[in-house]
Structure formats: C-alpha cells, structure tokens
# Entry
Amino acid sequence: MSKPKAKSKSKNPKRDNIINLVLSIFSILISASFAIYLIMSAIIPTKYLLLGIILLSVYNLIIVGLLLTNHKRWKRIVAIILIVISTLAMAYGAKTLYSVDSFIKNITKGNKNEKVYSLLVLEGDSYETGDQVEDTPVGYAKGTDLTTAVNLMPKNAGALAMEYASYPDLANALYDKEERLIILDESFRTIVKMSHPNFFWDTKIIACTDTEYLAKLKEREEAAGPGQSALPTLPDDFLNQPLLPDDVKDPSEFVPGDDTYYYAGQKVDGTKPFTCFISGMDTYGDIDIASNSDVNIICAVNPSTHEVLLMPVPRDSYVPIYGTEGGYDKLTHAGVLGVEASANSVADLMGIHMDSYLKVNFSTLIQGVDLLGGITVDNPVEFTSVQGYHFAQGPIRLNGEQALAFSRERKNLSGGDFDRGMNQTRVIKGMINEGLKPNNLLNADKLLNKMSGGFKTNMPDVAIRNLIADQIDSMAKWDIQASHLKGYGQMGLPSYFLPNYNLSFVVLYEDSVEEGRDMLLDVLEVEH
# Structure
C-alpha cells in the first residue's frame, strides 16, 4: 500500500507571515480608529463606549490568534471573513455617526436671518427686468440694504431714492404712482398684504436676490389665486369677548409683563432644565430667510425627569416687539426682525428667559413628516381645513402636506388661534414619537442627511450631543405635555408695523400668563 501524501506546506512561509501580520495590524488599526471616532462623537454614553472597546479588543484578539498561530489556510480564511464583517459594520456605524455629527454642526451654525430683496413695479409696467432700469427714482423703506438693492438694477446706481417710514407707506406710494419702482424686503410682504390683499397680483417682480424664493412665492400665490385676503379669519365669537374698559388707553396698562424675570436663564448643556423657543416661519425654501413667525411655542425641557411642556403663544398676541423700543404689535410680526426678536418678545411677555431657539419653516415640516413615513396625532375635534383636508376625530395618520394643513388651520376651529396652537403641539409630539421608533432610528443616516438644512438653532453643539447620549443611555420615554394661553379679541389697538390700520389682536389674560408661567417654572424646577 502506498503511504498517504503529506499535506502540502506553504511554498513561502515568510510571505504568509507578513500577510498575516499585515491583516492583524489592519484589523487593529481599523478598530482603534473606530473607537477613537466613537469617543470624539461625544454622543455614546461612557458605559457603552467601554463595552464597545472591550468587545472590539476581544474580537481583534480572536482575529490575531487565528492569523498568528498554527498557520493553516482555514484560519486565515475565517480571519479574513471576520475582518470583512467588522470593517463593513464599523463603516456603517461611522457613516451614521458622521451623519449625526454633520446634522448637529449644520443646525448649530446659527441663524443668518438672510434678507431677500425684490424690485417691484405695478403690473402692466414696461419694465420686465432689473437690467432695463435706468435713471428711474426708486422708493425704499427704512432699514433697506441699498447696496444689495443696487445690484438688482446695475444701470440705476445714481438714481434718486426716497425713504419711507414703513412698508405700508411704501406700497401706498407705488399704488398712488408716486413711485414707479420700489425695493421690497420680502420678509415684510405679509405685512404689506394686510393692507393690500392682492399685492402679488397688482405688482410685478422684475428682479429678486433669491430665485428659489421667487419660484416658491409664485407657486404659493398662484395656488391661492387673486382675491384671497391676508387678513386673519377670526372665530365667530371673537368680537363677543370682553372688551377693554373705555378708560384704558395705554397698552402697557393691560398687556401682561412687568419686566420681571422669574427665570433668568442659563447656558444650555443638555443635562439641566432649559427653555427653547420654537419658531415656525410662514415661508418655504431657505430656512435662513426672515419672515413672519406663524408658530410661536415655548418649550420647557427637563432632561433629568424627561419632561417636556409645550406652550403655544397665539400669533396675534398683542405684545411689545423686542427691538422696536416699546412698539406693540402682533407677535407674528416680530419674525420679520429675526427669530431672536420673536424669542425675546415672548421672554419679555412671560418673564421667562428663552435659553435657545429652534427655527423651522413650511418646507421643514412637510419634508420631515414625509421622511418619517407620516405621523400619528390624536385629534380631539373633527374638522375640515381650508385646503379641503378632512380630519376625523381620534387618532389619525398624516403625511407632510396634511400635517401642515392640520397645524395651520384656525378658521374652522371654534377656538381659532388657541386651538391651532394646540394642534401644532400635537404635530410636534407626533414627530418626536415617530422619530424614536426603531425603524426610523435605523434609518437615521438617510433622515438626517435629507433634513439637515431644515432646522436652525443656537443651542450649543455639546448640549445636543449630551441629550442624544442621555437618550441612548436611558432609552427613556419622554412625558410630553401641552397647555395654551388664553385671551380675548380686541380690534383697533395701535400697531407698530401697520399704523393707522384697524387690525385684530389677541389680548392675553394676565392670570392665564401667570398660570402658564408657573407650569413652565415647575418643569424647570424653579421655585416661584
């Protein structure tokens, strides 16, 4: 009988040793790099970091053991398979962490409050583009950046310019043909529409600093059609509410707020209770464009107890507008001066400092809800929105467009602006609950990449990372509550932005403001 053949040995054992050593070093370096990236991300709790580092160490010991002991082919094959699996897993983890990191950095860049300027003439004017304008006087409102305006009409740099005290005055000058050409800060368009509902249709934009904004504006106005007044629709019993005493003439005598701060604020670090002002702008597209604040919600957050209190403030609330030296107007109009003006106006009203803000707009809401696959809200009252969406009573599922309609409706709700504010908190709660579902957490990479341009906040980077780390560590279910302020309707109060116009306002009850303040202070754990 012939002897069995001995198993063939490697023809080049030295080369095999080098290959095995390189594979071992590669595995160790990849694992070490991933561990360092986990630490630098500052969103993984310490106990999970330690556990992860221990598991990576054990995993690498196994790989090294397979490669550097008893050089057999099957061991190398197994080691290579383990290296490929671990490398792919760490690449996916690093990609997700990178998306989270990029999202946090992008939304915490700060608010630019970019201005969009347009050059307008009356409809039917022969001018079609800014380049055609030459030797033509131009009207502008106080505060206009004339350097930007000149860029819209380069041949008209030396023309006469007339300043007007307000945008309604500027619009009147155009309608009365005192000015053929005006420069409009687009954040004031809604204010102009209060006095000229068909302003878009009566005028022609011949140049604009933001073409995307212009396209969205045209789409929105054409969808509504001419004849749609921008004046707010009030509940049927609005004017039946108690009016002011005849002897009260000074707004400061009845508007809540005495310049006393019951919560002075602090730097947000994500571990201590803090306040956040949520501002929803009535625009589409670029989040940095200033506009009316359609949503104004005070948010008190307690990371220790995992409590959140959402308190909407009616957009038509009659308040002193921060930055106007005591000028009173609707809270929504503060948005044209920037989100900080809205936040500080609310802070002065409530006597509670706003530690941070979160700014969103229509595009943010629609895109966010759709990316989450829709949200579920508990609707207390059946109603149909002005857009034609019917919302049944009880738990309902909404897509992005439906969520926007649900959160904006007030005409067909008995409580008007107050009911709308509560519906806005229901949408926010629905988005939070949907975002914490496992399927959306697994798709965090895709979600965050697509939503990174839809938010802006001045909350410190480290605070957001601490909040994420705490949530991963505790996996706590947050108790999200909502309450709204109460008030009554009042016509004809002095308006800072629209002087001499008979506007409707919401005057907040002082006891409602005090009650709301106490609820916020309870979440903030501040004695009062």
Observations:
- Residues 1 and 162 are 114 Å apart (CA to CA).
- The chain is about 40% helix and 15% strand.
- The first helix runs from residue 13 to 41.
- The first strand starts at residue 117 and ends at 122.
